[in-house]
Automatic annotation (TrEMBL):
<dbReference type="Pfam" id="PF13561">
    <property type="entry name" value="adh_short_C2"/>
</dbReference>
<protein>
    <submittedName>
        <fullName>Short-chain dehydrogenase</fullName>
    </submittedName>
</protein>
<dbReference type="GO" id="GO:0006633">
    <property type="term" value="P:fatty acid biosynthetic process"/>
</dbReference>
<keyword id="KW-0560">Oxidoreductase</keyword>
<dbReference type="InterPro" id="IPR057326">
    <property type="entry name" value="KR_dom"/>
</dbReference>
<dbReference type="InterPro" id="IPR020904">
    <property type="entry name" value="Sc_DH/Rdtase_CS"/>
</dbReference>
<feature type="domain" description="Ketoreductase">
    <location>
        <begin position="3"/>
        <end position="175"/>
    </location>
</feature>
<dbReference type="GO" id="GO:0016616">
    <property type="term" value="F:oxidoreductase activity, acting on the CH-OH group of donors, NAD or NADP as acceptor"/>
</dbReference>
<comment type="similarity">
    <text>Belongs to the short-chain dehydrogenases/reductases (SDR) family.</text>
</comment>
<dbReference type="InterPro" id="IPR036291">
    <property type="entry name" value="NAD(P)-bd_dom_sf"/>
</dbReference>
<dbReference type="InterPro" id="IPR002347">
    <property type="entry name" value="SDR_fam"/>
</dbReference>
<dbReference type="GO" id="GO:0048038">
    <property type="term" value="F:quinone binding"/>
</dbReference>
Amino acid sequence: MSPLAVVSGGTRGIGLTLSRRLVKLGYRVVAPYRSDAQAAASAAAELGESFHPLQLDVADADAVRAAAGTVLTRHGTPTVLVNNAGINIDRPFLELSALDWRRVLDTNLSGAFFLSQAFAPAMLAADRDATIVNIGATTGIRPRRNGANYCASKAGLLHLTKCLAVELAPRIRVNCLIPGMTETDELVTRFRLDDPAARAAVVAEIPRGRIGTTEEIADALEFLIGPASGYLTGQKLIVDGGQFMW
Ligand code: NDP
């Protein structure tokens, strides 16, 4: 049977391109999504029988545990888990409510913890090595204004990556793939990139002279789950056109 990948948020944006790439590489893909059933249906129509969207709030620990049990029974053990689901609720720090804080941390950080913990026992017991890739953000390293919740969640995700890389070794490699500015509907809306002046201002900060594509993030994922990165774990791979050179 073909290998299985679980890609949270694999129905839209970066996650959809990651799902497409994994299907192209011969994986079956289970893609938890939160609420956009239309996007999930359209991804399923495009990707066919190898793709299984799954309505699941990754921030809900009990729901994740139950869904993981169903996935393991119905589809088998994943060899790849991509913790990609993420949200922003941006506000100045002094205006951030407890709910704004919790929703972002619960999705971006706890969601990755819940999914990893739900699948790791089966992945560790399987007869082949597995990989977890957490989708971080440059703001998890370099803070930006009005995103204390998002920045903290992505900083936590980077450190969770390292902790899991230690505890799940040697059978599961765990790395953090950090996209820079990457062309998705969400990014276009958030940075008003439909406005040529706003786009030019963003691009001026990027040495490569353009915003990245979701395909370029899929290229990095392909490297991180493949044999060419077999000795790489607990690391961050930053794909940002040179915007930040850490
Ligand atoms: P999108 O908003 O386009 O897609 C987010 C996906 O995550 C959707 O499929 C969404 O499902 C799903 N999702 C959100 N919350 C939950 C939840 N609680 N449970 C299950 N699924 C959920 O985001 P992007 O593609 O732009 O971003 C993907 C990842 O990349 C995020 O982690 C983001 O932080 C990170 N990133 C993106 C950058 C960019 O430039 N685009 C830059 C740096 C990092 P639904 O559609 O149902 O809501």
